UniProtKB/TrEMBL annotation, chains A, B:
Official protein name in the record: Aspartate--tRNA ligase
Phylogenetic lineage: Bacteria, Bacillati, Chloroflexota, Anaerolineae, Anaerolineales
Known partners and oligomeric status: Homodimer.
Protein's UniProt keywords contain Transferase: no
Catalytic activity: tRNA(Asp) + L-aspartate + ATP = L-aspartyl-tRNA(Asp) + AMP + diphosphate
Positions with a binding annotation for ATP: 362, 410-413
Annotated organism of origin: Candidatus Brevifilum fermentans
EC number: 6.1.1.12
Length: 439, 439
């Protein structure tokens, strides 16, 4: 059986075709039935003259919207039909999977139920046009990310998500029974991508799940998300990482623009443009000064850090003065960074690190890593870590590990920012939070 | 600082360059020191005249092999040097990270320690040439897989690995405390890629970790591995899935051949060739007949199944008679398949399913899935499953889910087969087994 996609029907005028898709709407009139059928490529009207086949007319009348159908018929030109000026004259219809009636909600109805209910029926929610578009855009974006790295001679790795020891701090850590012992879920591939530097891979990237036992219920947190990670050797400082990062992201968005800009404009009312390179940079010290100038008050516990409001304010500032959506905040205090970030030799309270903001939201955290065994041990001790717990990691730095750095980047946060989505739960295929483990 | 890669040195004869890499070997002679330096792209000899700089000579004498170095010097032609007929006359050397002495083992020594010890020091083991090649080949292969699917309009998804209910059977399942409840690690993305079919995505693929609490210690099992999964809608039978699978795999190997065939030949002594399409197919019934003919005795508990020896025998048979490394075994008995495989309408004891063998090793399992809600429920009950536990999954089939099928494929098994590796522990970046959680 040869299927014709709806977008290609205009090449089959006056021919018999078979299409496959969902019953989008049904207008059941006195003598005629009009079925609007949807597949991934578009919509088409199918007309059925009831008296031609009364049994079939009965079947159609009983169909619930969103049923999965296979339809055979003749494509004819019909100027008065809005959907492409053509319709299919129904000859045969096979119900592949009838939708029960009523649906939990109408994905194409005028009023959408609240988010939590839509998440319960995520697959119906995903049938909405904007959601299909989102994952088409994401598919293009991740492929562009990899394409860029492959041109730069990166190696792709898949590191284990089950670990024998915590990867960073003990906070927000999931643990599990593992045969006769206890294992932990990776909070990032940090240690393993650095291991690739110790292995002489020089440049690696990874896409994979990241687990955080984070009890918060914000619009941007999840207990499991797709991390996009890279690490590169033989750098001089974090500036080398930032330079590659901005080119990488600009390339990625450029590819999305080429492929989806007009559809994004039509369906989301959003104008997409690749960002200019270089991205603006502001040091943490300057950022704190800027916040004072614009009157943003950081809570006292964020003395060495930023809070989400401050990030939004900084993002808005650079949007206003430079028209730029992306900003690097550099040189964070060691107090707010993990033990393995390298310190500035001339200012040991500061790290060679950065965050990347997109429209005021933290997308990535990066740094040059400390690769000198003794210095790294001292920094771990300063943070109060047990050297025993991280000994496997420390061992990576004993036998010739070059200077290196990299970043971790949240894919769904990027999709939120790129497509102006209000909540990460709308940006991810299936959301996981403290109280959401289904579907 | 501008780095020159070792492979590009011949374009810099008589120029001063800076290279970065590892001390591969050191010949410390009376008046001269010869350092062989390695980076990801090759080896080069660096010559140092000791009297030119006695301090530096001392530093070099103290260097352990595998130290990470930055070296500046002049590239000169030298016909007697085996490595490319050139060498670098040392001017400056910076020790980025000195290797402690002695190394746990010499990755480039003549005798390698046993596997388990090498896994303890995996990053040193990964410095070996064949391992670097392996992950370069894998990087090419996975990109080719995605490239193929993107040309066929697939969408990439990242499904959650933490689930509220077991994904398949309760066997070999890791569970973990999740806030106030219990969660499970995904044994496959099966349910979620089928959910994408219910969502109308039509064609999806995913690369992600798969977790199996499998206590076995064979050469082909791991408790965590990278699964390559796809699912496609509107198929007529499992034959549609197999046709796409064989083209996909042939394309993938073709890309590897184009990029790495000569290096694989040189370094592994292995001749790579893309397989012919179509792959041979044999039904399970025919396979059992064949095994009888060639005198292979299946253990009685494998009456509806195959064991690894049988798979090797079938693989060897097709290699002999057709010269083919890949074989589909089709139409497995329902007794040896999960509840969601679709039954043959004319032979309800058999499923519309297949395994793909590569050189006699199971690489993939695929099938057309049962998409009819009532039939699926009946099949689950027949397998003794609790409908309550799988209700979220069953719900996917209530509101218009088209016929569909797909496969799950083990990436490291494929690398084993492609590169003739004896053990999966040599084919994966970091191995996880019942007693191995480190590094």
């Amino acid at each position: 059986m040869k299927r014709t996609l709806i977008k290609d029907l205009d090449q089959h005028i006056d021919e018999q075709v078979t299409i496959q898709g969902w019953l989008h709407t049904l207008r059941d009139q006195k003598s005629m039935q009009f079925l609007i059928i949807r597949d991934r490529t578009g919509l088409v009207q199918v007309a059925h003259y009831k008296k031609g086949n009364l049994d079939l007319a009965k079947t159609i009348s009983d169909l619930g919207t969103e049923s999965a159908l296979r339809i055979t018929g003749k494509v004819v030109k019909n100027e008065i039909v809005k959907l492409g000026g053509l319709e299919i004259q129904l000859e045969d219809l096979l119900v592949e999977n009838a939708a029960q009636v009523p649906l939990p909600f109408e994905p194409f109805g005028e009023y959408l139920p609240e988010q939590d209910f839509r998440l319960d029926w995520r697959y119906l929610d995903l049938r909405r046009e904007v959601n299909q578009l989102l994952f088409e855009v994401q598919t293009t974006a991740v492929q562009a990310m990899r394409e860029f790295w492959l041109q730069e001679n990166f190696i792709e790795i898949n590191s284990p998500k089950i670990m024998g020891a915590p990867s960073e701090s003990g906070a927000e850590l999931f643990s599990l029974p593992y045969f006769d012992t206890t294992a932990y879920l990776a909070q990032s591939p940090q240690f393993y991508k650095q291991m690739a530097m110790a292995a002489g891979f020089e440049r690696v990237f990874e896409f994979g799940p990241v687990f955080r036992a984070d009890p918060s219920f914000t619009s941007r947190h999840m207990t499991e998300f797709t991390g996009v990670d890279m690490e590169m050797s033989w750098i001089d400082s974090h500036e080398d990482v930032m330079r590659l990062t901005e080119r990488w992201l600009a390339h990625t968005i450029q590819r999305v623009v080429e492929k989806h800009a007009s559809e994004v404009e039509t369906k989301l009312g959003l104008h997409l443009e690749a960002p200019m390179v270089p991205f603006p940079r502001i040091s943490m010290a300057e950022a704190h000064k800027l916040l004072k100038e614009i009157g943003y008050k950081l809570p006292p516990e964020k003395k060495f850090d930023l809070d989400p409001g401050a990030e939004r304010a900084i993002g808005a500032h650079f949007k206003e003065i430079q028209g730029h959506d992306y900003v690097f905040i550099t040189d964070w205090p060691f107090a707010s960074r993990p033990f393995y970030h390298m310190l500035h030799p001339e200012e040991p309270g500061l790290t060679r690190s950065f965050d990347l903001l997109g429209k005021g939201l933290e997308l990535a955290t990066g740094a040059q890593r400390e690769h000198r065994y003794d210095v790294l041990k001292a920094q771990a001790l300063e943070k109060g870590l047990s050297l025993e717990v991280i000994q496997d990691y420390l061992n990576y730095f004993r036998y010739g590990t070059p200077p290196h750095g990299g970043f971790g980047f949240g894919l769904s946060r990027f999709m939120m920012v790129l497509l102006d989505l209000p909540n990460i739960r709308e940006a991810v295929y299936i959301f996981r939070g403290p109280t959401r483990l289904t579907p």
